[in-house]
UniProtKB/TrEMBL annotation:
UniProt name for this protein: Archease protein family (MTH1598/TM1083)
One biological process term in Gene Ontology: tRNA processing
Domain Archease, residue spans: 29-125
Highest taxon, organism lineage: Bacteria
InterPro entries per record: Archease_dom (IPR023572), Archease_dom_sf (IPR036820)
Key words, A-Z: Calcium, Metal-binding, tRNA processing
Record organism: Maribacter caenipelagi
Native organism taxonomy: Bacteria, Pseudomonadati, Bacteroidota, Flavobacteriia, Flavobacteriales
GO MF, one annotated term: metal ion binding
Amino acid sequence: METQVVSKKPRRHFRNSISNLEFVKPKITVTVEACSLQELFKESLKRMANTLKSKIYNPTRHTDCMMKIEVEAANSKDLLKKFLNQVLELTYTHHTIFCTMYIEELTENKINAQLFGNWFDIFDNKLKHIPENGITMTFKKASLNPFNSSIIFNCENDL
């Protein structure tokens, strides 16, 4: 069988006008598995910190900053989203990557914790926030790690 040339003119997949192109916002997805709700929050914080700056989490490292945070929400999924978004806000306000925390109180609707972090000026990724439907959370009773979560972060566009 012989190959046929249909057209010698290359096809363009994009329109000529840049205004017609839709810019795709970059996103980063983090998956977390945990055996308890408390571990899910701690592990989510570590994964977010390691996304902001790779290999930042080191349990023996000193901390430069300590902040207290209290968040309330309707359910644990919204609580995790609000908590991580507030930590991101604190991160950029204080130029601090929060890696660990001590949870004083955690229920389905409320978290009260102390955050511990390190000062940084340059981040590997500039996370903006978690969008409205950016967290999926499942609970499987028969599993060793019954709490599973997938977190989507919107990133800053450097165009």
